[in-house]
Amino acid sequence: MTYRVVQWSTGNVGRWALRSIIARRELELVGVWVSGPDKAGRDAAELAGLDEPTGILATTDAQELIALRPDCILHTAMADDRLLEAVEDLKTFLRAGINVVSSSPVFLQYPYGTLPSEAIDPIVEAAREGGASLWVNGIDPGWANDWLPLLLTSGSERIDRIVCSEIMDYSTYDNPKVLFDIMGFGSKLDELPMLLQPGVLTLAWGSVIRQLAAALDVELDSVTQTFERHPAPEALRVADRTVEAGTAAALRFRISGTRSGRELIALEHVTRLHPDLAPDWPQPAGKGCYRVEIEGEPDYQLDLQLYSGGDHARAGVVGTAARLVSAIPAVVEAEPGLLTALDLPLTTGRGLVS
Predict the structure, then answer these.
(1) Distance in angstroms (rounded) separating the CA atoms of residues 110 and 209
(2) Continuous segment of H or E residues that includes residue 229
(3) How far apart are CA 27 and CA 71, in angstroms?
(4) Hey, which end of the chain has fewer CB within 10 Å, N or C?
(5) Residue 328 — very low, low, confident or very high, per pLDDT cuts 50/70/90?
(6) Domain ranges within the chain, ordered by starting residue
(7) Radius of gyration of the chain (CA)
(8) Residue 173, pLDDT score
(9) In terms of Cα–Cα distance, which of 278, 280, 258, 282 is closest to 269?
């Protein structure tokens, strides 16, 4: 069976998703939405960095693409600074009877226990109204802290604690808005950026904690957040901007799920703009890794290193896009509703071996 797909945005993740859609034999690209006139009218292949034209031209006309009634929209538009608008976009697609696989808003990966029912119910109702499904995922939040740790737990006799970590040098991460506006790199240490405002970390990554807890039949008493920041000892040049000495250049945050005062499940990020910063913080395997640690019987530590063209940051973006594309057939075939990783079968890179 062939699934008709519209790619929604061609930014940091979207252009890699576009490449992945084009590479899949079971997927037919039927449309591409772009946010600005500079990309409108250009062939999808050009936007994806491919040589062979597809004949599919990008457009800024959302209604034109919705009218195509594709089987699925792959939505990768930036949502961190427009959460409510992004949710409304997703509901519009669902009401039109179009299944959606999306990279954001990330709290929809597993919103139960994180969002109130009045925020979840309208999305579920839109899905039921249109007879369509929505699945939000990626690499983190996503498969690096849902299926990866859950696979390891199947080899456990006893589990005392699970910690999922992203330990990365972000100096090559090609998203200045995220680096400087949302994460606050280059800002004064006493100025809290959007990401570190009270409740934001638990909103974004609390879904990781609660999904793992649900999969392992664990009742949590609370989900809390903590963070540390480290200044640049000297000026650093990152993404064509200067991070001045004394401003934030490393960030470590942790979201903890506890029961009876004991941490059972944790998600930690250790992000540096230079590998020499904060040497006492956890260090990655290679230049960057996703790490899963399970304390119990036996103890496990899995370090997943990833590279694309020698760049681990780019590899994370490629992995985010590919995971979404791989899931399209399963999401289209699923019962209508708001799906989580616990609802889907194993999705693989079927047909990609060259």
Answers:
(1) 9
(2) strand 222-231
(3) 10
(4) C
(5) very high
(6) 3-136+316-339, 146-305
(7) 20
(8) 87
(9) 282
Band of pLDDT at residue 125, cut at 50, 70 and 90: very high
Query: What's the mean per-residue pLDDT of the chain?
Result: 96
Alpha-helix runs per DSSP H in the chain: 14-23, 44-48, 62-66, 83-95, 117-130, 147-153, 176, 200-215, 312-333
φ, ψ of residue 182 to 5 degrees: the values are -90, -45
Q: How many CA atoms lie within 13 A of 244 on its CB side?
A: 5
The reply to whether CATH 3.40.50.720 applies to domain 3-136+316-339 is yes
Taken as a whole, the chain contains a residue count of 354
DSSP letter for 242, please.
E
Residue percentage of the chain with pLDDT more than 70: 100
Asked if residues 220 and 257 have their Cβ atoms less than 8 Å apart, the reply is: yes
Pull the structure tokens for residue 235. Answer: 């000026």
CA distance 87 to 9: 15
Sign for the CA dihedral angle at 35, 37, 38, 41 comes to positive
CA dihedral over 266, 271, 277, 283, signed as positive or negative: positive
The answer for residues whose C-beta is within 8 angstroms of residue 121's C-beta and 6 or more apart is none
pLDDT at 147: 96
Q: Calculate the CA 74 to chain-centre distance.
A: 13
Position 228 confidence tier, pLDDT thresholds 50, 70, 90? very high
> Rounded to whole angstroms, what are the CA distances from 131 to 97, 123, 335?
6, 12, 8
Q: Which two tokens stand for residue 230?
A: 């480290």
Tokens of 232: 């640049």
What is the average per-residue pLDDT within 291-308? 97
The residues that bridge with 113 in the sheet, in sequence order, are none
Residue 126 near residue 95, CB atoms below 8 Å: yes
Give the mean pLDDT of 166-195: 93
**DSSP secondary structure letters along 187-216:** S-TTS--GGGSTTHHHHHHHHHHHHHHHHT
